[in-house]
């Protein structure tokens, strides 16, 4: 039988999504997919915040989740802008081929 | 009971979409699975009575960020990248590190679930609407952060235009 869903369940789900996002950032070469993985990580944080907001029956977690979403939007816009500028100069979207600062 | 069914459905959507998002070769497929994952997260918001955040999730994430991703996928040529190998040389180290952190986190969640001294969930749920309560707090206590966030978004707009424009 299914056990009742508690806040711990949400914490576990959030941890799993965070790990998936981290895996994407660490393993993929394609920068577009790396940026998508960062969105997954930020969503995992939001699940946590909303779960605690519900648990304590106040709004602070949801307010904070809204700010996280605002920052995620800014980050996606800037990240994709950088990607377009980069693609214009280097004609690659693979993270390990961008090594101008390495020697 | 119904709660649990919905929770596990949305959890499966979220995690399955996430895993498929980071493993697909084609970036457009990744974006589509990202939509599935974000919808799952939105469903979890609904389950936790954060209706306003569900709407924000649908409008901002699925309607905004994913569309932005799709536009960028259209602007940069990803065919070449799709033909090459998808994972970098350190992927095994990355997988090991994530597995280690995952084992640690889940061990502590499991071992500490009983001792984690969360107070019992608040029983009385306010009858006010979620949006109303959120606005009450946002426009009184969090007014200054709200204004600062608008400044951040302005900087992001200017920044992304400067980055993406060929010549200023």
In short:
The complex is a heterodimer of chains A (103) and B (168). Chain A is mostly helical and 103 residues long. Helix content of chain A is 76%, strand content 0%.
Describe the protein.
The complex is a heterodimer of chains A (103) and B (168). Chain A has 103 residues and is mainly α. Chain A has a domain of 67 residues. Helix content of chain A is 76%, strand content 0%. In chain A, helix 2 packs antiparallel against helix 3. Chain A starts with 6 loop residues before the first helix and ends in a 13-residue tail after the last helix. The model of chain A has no long low-confidence stretch (mean pLDDT 89). With 168 residues, chain B is mostly helical. Chain B has 2 domains: 97 residues, NADH-ubiquinone/plastoquinone oxidoreductase chain 6, subunit NuoJ (Four Helix Bundle (Hemerythrin (Met), subunit A), Up-down Bundle), CATH 1.20.120.1200; 40 residues. Chain B is built from 7 helices and no strands. In chain B, helix 1 packs antiparallel against helix 2 and helix 2 packs antiparallel against helix 3. The termini of chain B are far apart. The model of chain B has no long low-confidence stretch (mean pLDDT 88).
Helix content of chain B: over 70%
Q: What's the pLDDT, averaged over the residues of chain B?
A: 88
Alpha-beta content class of chain A = mainly alpha
CATH level-four homologous superfamily name of the largest domain in chain B: NADH-ubiquinone/plastoquinone oxidoreductase chain 6, subunit NuoJ
Largest sheet of chain A: none
Q: Report the radius of gyration of chain B as a whole number of Å.
A: 21 Å
Number of helical segments of chain B? Answer: 7
User: How many strands of chain A?
Assistant: 0
Helix content of chain A: over 70%
> What is the count of DSSP helices of chain A, taking H or I runs of 4+ residues?
3
Low-confidence stretches of chain A: none
How many domain units of chain B? 2
Mean pLDDT of chain A: 89
